[in-house]
Amino acid sequence: MSFGTLETPVGTLGVTAAGGAITSVGWVHATAEQDVDGLVAEALNQLEAYFAGQLRRFDVPFDLGKQTEATRAVLMTLYDTVGYGDSITYGQLAERSGTDVPARGIGAIMGANPVPLIVPCHRVLASDGLGGYSGGAPGEGLVTKRRLLEFEGALPAPLF
């Protein structure tokens, strides 16, 4: 297993790899001991390029772990079809994935995404607003989601 961190505009991200794939991306609050292999280094480089505005799609191998067939289908549909600067509603993603997962279930799947940013769950919105987001510092999920969407140009920056 390999692990590394990166300071970003939305907090410190930790990236873990095992078995030749990225297995988790998440916000960390204390820098743990790092053991960076080539794959984690590449993921950190791609994250750095993303936040520098130089990368719009991640292409490191990732592993979603043990998931139901429907969960895997939803996450892969998101990864494959919702690009940088775009967004989709929970209901639209449910329909696009071809599963029978209801919109509320899509929200739960997004909250359990093991590789946020790589699989861009921040691009999934409620039909009447941002919806939820489990990333970012504790209590800062929606602020983090808004910042990511503004950064990508999917939301206008606030006037104040």
TrEMBL record:
Q: Its biological function? A: Involved in the cellular defense against the biological effects of O6-methylguanine (O6-MeG) and O4-methylthymine (O4-MeT) in DNA. Repairs the methylated nucleobase in DNA by stoichiometrically transferring the methyl group to a cysteine residue in the enzyme. This is a suicide reaction: the enzyme is irreversibly inactivated.
- Cross-referenced PROSITE patterns, in alphabetical order? MGMT
- Give TM segment ranges: none
Catalytic function, reaction form: a 6-O-methyl-2'-deoxyguanosine in DNA + L-cysteinyl-[protein] = S-methyl-L-cysteinyl-[protein] + a 2'-deoxyguanosine in DNA; a 4-O-methyl-thymidine in DNA + L-cysteinyl-[protein] = a thymidine in DNA + S-methyl-L-cysteinyl-[protein]
Q: Can you tell which superkingdom this protein's organism belongs to?
A: Bacteria
**Name under which the protein is recorded:** Methylated-DNA--protein-cysteine methyltransferase
Identify which cofactors the protein needs according to its UniProt entry: Zn(2+)
Q: Which UniProt keywords apply?
A: DNA damage, DNA repair, DNA-binding, Metal-binding, Methyltransferase, Phosphoprotein, Transferase, Zinc
Q: Does the keyword Mitochondrion apply?
A: no
Specify the enzyme's EC class, one word: transferase
Kindly give the InterPro entries that the UniProt entry links to this protein: MethylDNA_cys_MeTrfase_AS (IPR001497), MethylDNA_cys_MeTrfase_DNA-bd (IPR014048), MethylDNA_cys_MeTrfase_DNAb (IPR036217), MethylG_MeTrfase_N (IPR008332), MGMT_N_sf (IPR036631), WH-like_DNA-bd_sf (IPR036388)
Q: Where is the Methylguanine DNA methyltransferase ribonuclease-like domain?
A: 3-64
Which family, according to UniProt?
Belongs to the MGMT family.
The EC number(s) attached to this protein equal 2.1.1.63
Task: Tell me where in this chain the Methylated-DNA-[protein]-cysteine S-methyltransferase DNA binding domain is found.
Answer: 78-154
